[in-house]
Amino acid sequence: MKAVTWQGRRDVRVETVPDPSVIDPGDAVIKVTTTGLCGSDLHLYELLGPFLDAGDILGHEPMGIVEEVGPGVEHLRAGDRVVVPFNVSCGTCFMCERGLHSQCETTQVHEHGNGASLFGYTKLYGQVPGGQAQYLRVPFADTLPVPVPHGPPDDRFVYLSDVLPTAWQAVAYADVPPGGGVAVLGLGPIGDMCTRIAAHRGAGTVIGIGLVPERLTRAAAHGVRVFGLGRYGGQLLEAVREATAGRGSDAVIDAVGMEAHGGTAAATAQTRTGLLPDVLAAALMKKTGVDRLAALHLAIDLVRRGGTISLSGVYGGAADPLPLLTMFDKQIQLRMGQANVRRWVEDLMPLLTDDDPLGVDGFATHHLPLEDAATAYADFQAKENHTVKVLFTP
Length: 394
Known about the structure:
With about 400 residues, the chain is α/β, with parallel strands linked by helices. The chain is about 30% helix and about 20% strand. The longest helix has 12 residues, at about 165-175.
């Protein structure tokens, strides 16, 4: 089969690799019909090479048609249409039963002290072959894949793999009071969807903050009050406070994460670390790694006293300094974590099977063949060619 493989920093290639097969009785193999390119994939493209091997298959946002099931599978059949969550979670352990699928005890990566395994995401999370491919092996076939109806186009359901539950959890964790305000930092796919979900769930004021003019325009078209960093610069904090009765926003969602613009020193350290041999780089990143924290520091400034910060952007630093005095003094509540995809499916499915209140049918900016993956990764990272959300059709 064809698959998108990691070959080195900023080097992804579509190669021919062996087809997956049923290994355990509870497995299924799906033929991938649509698979997304995620902002988290850019962390692999740029920073996390020390935890990857050449040839690793990327991607964690797939859906498709079941081709084969193992003899132990009871509830899934060949021909079923499914979306595959990015968490590899069993659905039955202590953590999964409590809705913490990203902490699944069955697939935790004990070697690195991390939570549940993820499709297509480094040795730190199990090095499981990913979904930017023509076929995908899916374990826990009775509890992990999300069955969806035949009929509507893939765009209606594919975001259940990541974008929708990640954004839904970010808004839920933000705990915006009824009619209150939320500011979303970063208007890529997750941030954009956070603004839509926040409005749907009853936020009175939704503010979007970003750098890319096309993304600001896209959010504004959905009723978001946008603030461009290029326009406001050092006056951003005052402008947002003026829009929020002088207090700051009730909640702030950081949908940017470790590669925020403005973190020059950390960016330099990340680049230099990436040039070291993998063994040295991996050890350094796990012990002393730092992130670009510009977005998180901005969130701390923007949130009102007693407000909540919700982190959906991925952070990976082991030694990140935080302004705890300010956080304590402002009585900030902080919630974060990988999305527990399966936890939120029941909340989201009614929004996909009737109308389309979140605008998922038109959410993608690019539909591309898998063969265009290298160009898509480069454009997405550089924020060029109006690239916000790419869907591949293997």
